[in-house]
Design brief:
With about 160 residues, this protein is mainly beta. The protein has one domain: Sandwich (lipopolysaccharide transport protein A fold). Helix content is about 15%, strand content about 55%. Strands 1, 2, 3, 4, 5, 6, 7, 8, 9 and 10 form a 10-stranded antiparallel sheet that branches. The chain is elongated and about 50 Å long. It starts with a helix and ends in a 6-residue tail after the last helix.
Length: about 160
């Protein structure tokens, strides 16, 4: 049984290690439970999921990874999704990574913030390749963006 777990873990690291946007670092995933269906090309992680690759950190309640020919095609994170990449932090109820489209989509009370400010909406779609980001309206029918100015950061109020 331990051998089967080790083989599954090595396979998943190879699968998740290819095609993901972030450099050459190994993927490390911890969770309370892991189930792999090789015929469907699916891996599911449940309970306190923590994925780390280089300076990318993802935490969620459940993670589904879909792969084909040992390449990650799509991944979905569910429940209290929190991620950090360098100085940028994101949060949502659900997140989807689509390798073919080069998109990361945050869904449900989505937000992305860094030292420069924060954007919030019901849905945030980010194209990894083009760095184009689209924010869709929240429950109040509006999107929100807050930008820190240099004057505020330096304590200058203009008075």
């Amino acid at each position: 049984m331990k051998l089967i777990r080790a083989v599954c873990l090595c396979l998943l690291i190879n699968i998740l290690g290819t095609g993901v946007v972030f450099a050459k670092d190994a993927v490390e995933i911890e969770s309370e439970q892991m189930v792999v269906d090789h015929l469907k090309g699916e891996a599911e992680f449940k309970g306190g999921v923590h994925l780390v690759r280089g300076d990318f950190d993802l935490r969620c309640d459940r993670l589904l990874a879909y792969y084909q020919n040992n390449e990650l095609k799509r991944a979905e994170a569910f429940g209290r999704v929190r991620m950090q990449h360098g100085t940028k932090r994101g949060a949502s109820k659900r997140a989807v990574y689509d390798r073919n489209k080069n998109l990361i989509t945050l869904l449900g009370e989505a937000s992305v913030e860094d030292a420069e400010g924060v954007v919030r909406g019901e849905k945030i779609i980010h194209n990894i390749k083009t760095e184009h980001t689209e924010v869709m309206q929240g429950s109040d029918g509006r999107v929100h963006m807050s930008i820190e100015s240099d004057d505020i950061k330096q304590g200058n109020t203009g008075q």
